Structures are given as structure tokens and as C-alpha cells.
Fold each of these.
Amino acid sequence: MSAPMLEGRTAVITGAADGLGWAMAQRFASEGARIVVADLRADLARQRVNALREGGAEASFFAVDVTDEAAVDALFAHAGAEFGGVDVLCNNAGVTRDSVLRKMSLDDFRLVLDVHLQGAWLCTRAAVASMRDTGSRGSIINMSSIAGKVGNPGQTNYSTAKAGMVGLTKATAKEVARYGIRVNAIAPGLIRTAMTEQMDQAVLAESVASVPLGRIGEPGDVADVALFLASDLSSYMTGCLLEVTGGRHM
Ligand SMILES: NC(=O)c1ccc[n+]([C@@H]2O[C@H](COP(=O)([O-])OP(=O)(O)OC[C@H]3O[C@@H](n4cnc5c(N)ncnc54)[C@H](O)[C@@H]3O)[C@@H](O)[C@H]2O)c1
């Protein structure tokens, strides 16, 4: 029998209290990873950590707003103190503030860019510093979106942020490859989480009808691909964007 794929590795997952982040936390823990659940929502995140521990995993919670530089640095100091560093970072925390351009406030544009793009950049900077200090040949996974490829009307903020995360992925991948650190991105399509529950359900049903594989994605569909990117199965891949869309927008 082969060893668990992430045995002895520590994964920091932002936005891990819910949705895709929680699915990745469970999937990575099932493959032996130590998990740092990093999220704004303390109560839910604590419940998640307890559930991971009950399942036999090592896990820890850190309350963080990924837009806050000092809080992000403290998150990685926590991962160092608790587990000796970080080997896998998932930049997954996200929010939406949808509206047509004419009605979108600058605050809603900024918030979405700050959480996705600035948050991912701050976490990446801190994670790379930690990986270099410990010599970890780590893996960074950025949760982009198919919206960054095709552009969604009503989501000029979100589509801009998600396209930006692809640039961040590629630039960082080139910069840190020499240290054996890999950086890849995932572009999910429509996945069943709180984020898609907020959508107009008629629009959602119409969109799902155009998915070649004929169904909405489940968080586990994305978590499996993230596990592949986190693990040595993808050891010759960096700077890639993997679409997990059921074939929509191929
Ligand atoms: N669900 C989809 O269909 C879909 C599709 C494409 C991309 N994505 C992306 O996947 C990621 C996860 O989405 P989801 O659907 O699981 O969303 P979700 O709303 O279920 O979970 C997002 C999590 O991020 C946390 N969060 C929000 N702002 C934060 C901040 N400033 N600091 C720390 N944590 C914060 C929330 O508390 C929440 O637990 C997001 O980046 C999203 O844009 C989702």
C-alpha cells in the first residue's frame, strides 16, 4: 500500500471554513496533511477544526482577514510555530459583490479585488518566505475562476480579480521555480456552494443546462484536482491553469 499523498506536509487553506476550502481541507487531511484552517468566520472554522481532529488529523484554526498584511504575516508565523512551516498554500478565500458596471460602487470593486488578489498576493509572499526558510519544495494553488477567462456580465470586479490571479500564478511560478516551489491555478466553473446559492436560481439553472457533463460541480470535484496539484503527482507542473467546469467554456 502506498503512503498517504500529503503525509508530513502542512497545508494553509484560506477560506477553509466553508465551500471549496472546507472540501480541500477534508481531502488533504484524508491524505495525511496537517491543516491550518484560515478564515474570517471563527465559530464555523473552530467546528471544522474539531471535525478534522475527530477524524484523526492534526489541524489548527487561525482567524484572518486575508486583506490585512499584519494578520497574514501572523497566520504564517502561527503555521511555523504550530507545525514548523507551510508546504501547501491554497489561496481560496473569496467574496462576490455582483452588479452591473453602472451600479457597482468603488467599494464593491475594491473589496473583491482586495480579498481575491491582494489576499492571494500577501499569502503567497508570506508562504514563499516560509518555504524558502524551511527548504520546502512547496505547492501554491490559486483559486481563480472561469469568470477570469470568459468575463461574466455583472461581475466586472470578480472577473478582473480572477484574471489577475492567473497573472499572479504565472509570475510567481517563474520567480520561485528555482527553489522547487510550484504555483498553479484552478478555474472552477459552477460549483454547489454558498457562493452559487446566492445566485439567481433561474440563471444558475440555465447555466447548468449548458454544462457538457450535464450537472453542477460538487466541492469534491475541485478538491480532487487541488489534491493533484498539492501532491507529487503534479511535480512537473507549474504555472498551469486547470479548468474544472464539466466542459463549460472549453
Ligand atoms: N462556487 C463556485 O461556483 C466557484 C466558482 C469559481 C471560483 N470559485 C472560487 O472558489 C473560492 C471558494 O468559493 P466558495 O464557493 O467555496 O465560497 P464560500 O462563500 O462558500 O466560501 C468562501 C470562504 O472564504 C471566507 N472569506 C471571505 N472573505 C475572507 C477574507 N477576507 N479573509 C479570510 N476568509 C475570507 C468566507 O468566510 C468563507 O468561509 C473563491 O475564491 C471563489 O471565488 C467558486
Note: The CA atoms of residues 216 and 226 lie 18 Å apart.
Amino acid sequence: MRIEFLGHELQSPIIVGSSPASWNADAMIACHEAGAGAVVTKTINRNAADNPDLHMVSAGRETLINCEKWTDLPMAQWLDDELPRAVAAGVKCISSVGHSIEDSRLCVERLEELGAMAIELVSYTDDTVLPMLEDTKRRVDIPVIVKLSPNSADLMGHARRCVDAGADALTACDSIGPAMRIDIETGKPLMGGADGCGWLTGAAIFPFTVARIAALRKAMPEVPIIGLGGVTQWQDGIEFVMAGADAMGLASAAILHGPSFITRMNARVDAWCTDHGVTSLDQIRGRVHEHLPVEQDDGYAMGFSHEKCRHCNACVTACAYRARAFDEGGYALVDESLCRHCGLCVSVCNFGALSVEKGGIR
Ligand SMILES: Cc1cc2nc3c(=O)[nH]c(=O)nc-3n(C[C@H](O)[C@H](O)[C@H](O)COP(=O)(O)O)c2cc1C
Ligand code: SF4
Ligand code: SF4
């Protein structure tokens, strides 16, 4: 599905976040050809990064930890070769620039001349972003996006200050950390940086991101938001939009599964939209806010579908209150006298056999 974003028509709502999936022009072109609406460059800095060996590991379950810095290519290479090549290939390029005004003032005008559709500013501390933003806004006419850090002590206040200082859009959010994993055979940390730590991305951070997007959308209804952080299945993109995002950002999924993930996700998102009569994401954007605050109601009861139950046992073992047991027919029925209506069994059933309903058991 095509979308309008920051004055551009994008071929899809998927925006690839700054990461190894966008480490050079060829990687960006591969994402574009796979269907990405836009691609954010790996963060450009005045010095090429020197990353330690072992700077990216899988933490299992579609989750990554990395201690990778910004781009390991010189700024001049981005300006002379990578960005012009990506733009010439038709990539809608968002140029990520960090992490201080000394870096941004060296390149933002040139990035605009080369055809970047927007600049995305990123830094390690909130204090360094605002001067970068104010300076960049004076230097360029293209939109300037600020990438928010979920590690900020005052994410909402910082977001507001950025918008007041002229940010045209927000990316919510960056990776979460610090995070550590240990090899239990050696006792060594899996990350190769001096502190053994890195930053968490992928599935583990998804619910956190959804909450941040929802809060930002509620506080700033008009500000364009790139949702980013934790997308690992196509449904996650829809969820981002229902929280209030304008675009579906992802990085870890494109790293772990390659650019073809984007093609598959676009196809499934489009199919879902067709099935649900959605012709524009505007129809579903921020839908969660129609249901907030959640109505507090004790009148729920557990629903059970005999047709859908596959007798897998997941709900029975997950119930801490032992309220579910198999009947003689092998159906995992609930004992309402024990059930606390916590809802867990409904979410662990992979077959859609369970539901919570108002007004009695189906
Ligand atoms: C290996 C790796 C390197 C990254 N490098 C950058 C970077 O240079 N600049 C940046 O702004 N974000 C960087 N990110 C963060 C991503 O852009 C994104 O915010 C984060 O991965 C969360 O999205 P995800 O869960 O879809 O991966 C990096 C992420 C990963 C996994
Ligand atoms: S809702 Fe909670 S208490 Fe009730 S059956 Fe399910 S898991 Fe057990
Ligand atoms: S988790 Fe679902 S499919 Fe499995 S036993 Fe329970 S109701 Fe049946």
C-alpha cells in the first residue's frame, strides 16, 4: 500500500531503520527493491566507526543485542558515492546523522543537495539533539526527523521540546539498553565491547514501542511518527499504525531475514487491508485511542470453541490457578469458580479457541 509521508509518496509504509540493513548503497537498494517505502542510512558521523569484534548477537526469539556504533564508512564516502548511488537507484533516502552538532553541520546541506528526502538526527543524550536540531533546521529545507531514545529519563518531555524546536517528525524509538548475555560454558559476555553490554532490538522491545507510540500520538496528534522497535511479523506493523504511527519501521527483521522480509510483510499487510476494507492507513491510525481508557468491567466470562480446540495443553499448563482441565472429551474447559479472569490462557492459545467475552460463556 502506498502512503504519503513528509510530502513524498512512498511505495509502502515500511521504512527500514538505520542499521546493517542500510549499511551502504547496495544494502539500501536491496531494501528498496524488496518494497521498502524509504530507507534510513546507517548513522553518518564525521569519523568512521571502529566496531569491536563480536558486536551483534542473537538473543533468541527474534531479538538482537548489538554494540555497533555508527557507520564504519567515512563521511566522504557517503557523500561522494553511497548516497548518490542510492538516490539514483530510486531509493527514498532518509539520512541518519549523529551524534553532535559538530557532525551534523559538516554534512546536512550536502545530503539535501544529493537528494535525501529527510534528515534523521540521533544522539546518545537528549541534550545534544536539540542544538543539532536547531542548527540543522537553519541549514536545510527538507524535513528533519528526531529519533527518540527509549532510554531517555523524560521521553515525552524531550519529544515535546523537539517538536517545539521544529522537528518535522519523530522516530519512536531507538534500541533499549544496556543489555547483556553470558555464555554459560565460559562465563564470558557475548558482546565484544569493553563493558560486555549492548543494545536490545527486535521482538523483546515491541510492546514497549507500541506503548511509546500510543503515548506520543495521544500527546501530539499532528506529528508524523515512524514507529520503530520490535517489528518481527507483519501484524506488528498494523499494531504500530493502530497505536498511532504513520509508518512501519523495522531493522532487526531485515537483518535476520534479509530484505525479502519486507516483500512478505507488504504482501500480508496489503492482504489484511483488503480483507478489512482498509484502503488507507488513515482509517485505522490511532484506533486504540477509541478504546482508551479501557472500560473497567467485571462482567467478563471465558469463551471456548469446541471446533477450534486442538487439545494442545498450552492453556491448561499456563493457568496458575488450575482453573482449566480437560473434560472426558479432551476439551480444556474452565472452572469458573477457580478462574480469576486474568486472560493469560486466551493469549497462549495459538488456535483461537479461547476468548474473553462479556455476558457468559459461548
Ligand atoms: C546492529 C544494529 C545497528 C544499529 N545501528 C544504528 C545506527 O547506526 N543508528 C541508529 O540510529 N540506529 C541504529 N540501530 C537501531 C535501529 O535503527 C532501530 O532503532 C532498532 O534496531 C529497533 O528496531 P528493530 O527492533 O526493528 O530492530 C541499530 C540496530 C541494530 C540491530
Ligand atoms: S483466565 Fe487466567 S485464571 Fe482463568 S482459566 Fe485462564 S489462565 Fe486460568
Ligand atoms: S490452548 Fe487452545 S487449543 Fe490448546 S488445549 Fe487450550 S483451548 Fe485447546
Note: The first strand starts at residue 3 and ends at 5.
